[in-house]
Design a protein that fits this description.
2 copies of one chain form a homodimer.
Chain A lengths: L3 H8 L3 H9 L7 E2 L5 E2 L2 H15 L4 H12 L5 H34 L10 H7 L10
Antiparallel strand pairs in A: 1-2
Helix pairs in contact in A: 4-5
Chain A binds a DNA duplex (30 and 30 nucleotides) through helix 2.
DNA sequence: TCTAATTCCTCTAGCAACTAGAGGTGCAAG
DNA sequence: CTTGCACCTCTAGTTGCTAGAGGAATTAGA
């Protein structure tokens, strides 16, 4: 069994964040030692790594809860879970599309900033200029 | 002169957000009408468009404040503005790469889900597994 | 073995970047 | 002239944490 500090060390998730995740329902309520300290099994390392990687990909905790609910019911038929995965896939595709717009916008800005003065700098100008940006706003 | 509502309409930035930006030092304290209502000049439309566009590109308010202060010194080199954009570009590229990893995992999961069980899916596994993730952590 | 440093506990409060609501004033149209 | 909207200030809520207070327990070194 792992203390919260060991769990933190093995996953890179900070101790207060682990406690926060517990409050937020991302982690099951752990066992306690006789002196009231949290004790975690090895499965929690996996679960925390999963949460951390998903967070790094930009998933909100709610979406991660959905994904975790898949792995919490490994014997369930995929029919019910398929919808969740599809929704996540569509969300990921939308994120990628948007980020690729932003990427080319940033590249364009940088290429136009060829070591000149700010008065000639296209970075600031293009950030003001809506027509050139290629990002859709309503 | 524009009321806060007109300014909001012309820029797409919500009224409470404009007031928030004022508190946050992103916008100069505006004139007031005799009845205490905010009045904005045309320059504020430009400034707000700049802020909104920068936010949509993922710049934090602090970086936008830096960019705004740079644009007040037009004779300096634009290297600093370029550097801020470079940092954003690198962050965006990293996110795209990770999301594409996840996208193919989700696609694989959905295709494997044809009649199978969740326990055979590799999404959770690949998101838990540090070695496969392609992202560097410390 | 004793002590000092560390880890753990709970709790509250703060961060960014807003958003929503309460409760009140002003202004323009029917 | 009154109704209805836009505006005002202020507080509080949101998400996903992070930092600190104040206190108990465990571990490491002399």
């Amino acid at each position: 069994m792992l203390s919260i500090g060991k769990l933190s060390g093995q996953t890179g998730v900070k101790v207060p964040t682990i406690r926060y995740y517990e409050d937020a329902g991302m982690l099951p309520v752990p066992e306690r030692s006789p002196s009231n300290q949290r004790l975690y099994g090895a499965a929690t390392v996996e679960r925390l790594n999963f949460i951390r990687h998903s967070r790094e990909l930009g998933f909100p905790l709610e979406a991660i809860r959905d994904l975790l609910s898949l792995s919490d019911k490994p014997d369930q038929s995929c029919a019910a879970a398929d919808a969740i995965a599809q929704v996540q896939l569509r969300a990921v595709e939308a994120r990628i599309a948007r980020l690729q717009n932003l990427k080319s916008e940033l590249e364009r800005m940088i290429s136009q900033c060829a070591g000149g003065k700010i008065s000639e700098c296209r970075v600031i100008e293009s950030l003001s200029d809506h027509d050139q940006c290629g990002v859709e706003h309503k």
